[in-house]
Amino acid sequence: MQADPLSSAMATLSAGLESPLSASPSLGSGAAGAPPFSDLLQSAIANVNQLDSQATTAVQGLMSGAGVDVHQAMIATQKSQMAFEMALAVRNRAVTAYQQVMQMQF
């Protein structure tokens, strides 16, 4: 059975968030062996794109009568929507954090 892309993306993101930060003073260095945040973000975006294309294929199959059930199309559409909303929430949090950093006075 193939793993659900959304749950694998969530597991990847949560694994990256749960790992402790390195004590190294250099910028961009995370825990030893942990992938950089940019890799996690790119993986999550790729999963969102994959779910979107699966939903599009399922809806097109439903509309053309290619043997796709309504349930399958709706589930694919909802997975795609939830993944997009999660990505949008991450983006909003990143923008908020950036704005807070830019407002800091040293």
TrEMBL record:
GO biological process terms held by the UniProt record: bacterial-type flagellum-dependent cell motility
InterPro entries reported in the protein's UniProt record: FliE
GO molecular function: cytoskeletal motor activity; structural molecule activity
Keyword terms: Bacterial flagellum, Cell projection, Cilium, Flagellum
Pfam families in the cross-refs: FliE (PF02049)
Keyword Chloroplast: no
Location relative to the cell: Bacterial flagellum basal body
Principal subcellular localization: other
A Gene Ontology term for the protein's cellular component: bacterial-type flagellum basal body
Family: Belongs to the FliE family.
Name of the protein: Flagellar hook-basal body complex protein FliE
